[in-house]
Amino acid sequence: MPPLLTLVELREAIADAIADNKKAYNVPTICTALGLVSGDSNEAFSSKRVYVRSRIITKSIGELVDLGEKLLERYPDADDLENMIGLFKATGRGVTGHIKNLIFAADGPKPELVLNDALNNTIEIVENSEYCLVYDLPISSTGLLWKHLVEWWSKKNNLPFPDKQTEYDLFYRLIKSLASPPEKLLFETYFKYFHPKLAGELPALIPQVYLR
């Protein structure tokens, strides 16, 4: 059976194609030309690949294939990307991945997990369940966005949605699970920089994931 093309592989190939062919100060221009969210060169100078990834993380595999084809018109020597696009077209087979159990953000002892049913991926938390969060809703084709996580949190805790205070409540609950200053700095910087830019399309940044 031909191999499946994954979202992660395709995202990486697109990020590599742009990063390998463009200077950092030109990356925002090419991304904007491709219809991606605009930014500035300072962000691109930090990491060209991260700059690109952050703008394509919510796209479906079909959207990424379309974007990859546009890139190949500009950069026909992007062999990895060309091979992946060819694989998808030849087989029509891609996989977006499905999260059945997302256990994360323990703010105390880590959860003890057992696999009750390997065939159906049924997980039971046998100890310390009170310290962690479990997201058990379906993940849409956009991936898990921050607004989805906030809505889940609001229903779990009977809080209003949409509501800024509910967002802050979840944000600080997630911060509590981070043990080191670098982790907290990364988490806070991500929201400070990307939340105003992406708003409702902001991908959720999930701390301390124990099982997917």
Given as residue ranges, the uncertain stretches (5+ residues, pLDDT < 50) are none
Helix/sheet category: mainly alpha
Radius of gyration over C-alpha positions, nearest whole angstrom: 19 Å
The counted number of beta strands is 6
Q: What number of domains?
A: 2
Distance between the termini: 25 Å
Q: What's the helix-strand series?
A: EHHHHHHEEEEEHHH
Total helix count?
9
Strand line-up across the major sheet: 1-2
Largest sheet: 2 strands, parallel
Overall 3D form: globular
Q: What labels describe this entry?
A:
globular, 212 residues, two-stranded parallel sheet, 9 helices, 2 domains, 50% helix
Write structural notes for this entry.
This protein is mainly alpha-helical and 212 residues long. The protein folds into two domains: 5-95; 102-201, no CATH class. It is 50% helix and 10% strand. The chain is built from nine helices and six strands, in the order βααααααβββββααα. It has helices at residues 7-21, 27-33, 41-46, 48-56, 61-74, 79-91, 146-156, 164-175, 181-198; strands at 5-6, 94-95, 102-104, 112-117, 122-127, 133-135.
List the helices and strands and how they pair.
Elements: E1 5-6, H1 7-21, H2 27-33, H3 41-46, H4 48-56, H5 61-74, H6 79-91, E2 94-95, E3 102-104, E4 112-117, E5 122-127, E6 133-135, H7 146-156, H8 164-175, H9 181-198
Parallel strand pairs: 1-2
Antiparallel strand pairs: 3-6, 4-5
Helix pairs in contact: 1-4, 1-5, 1-6, 5-6
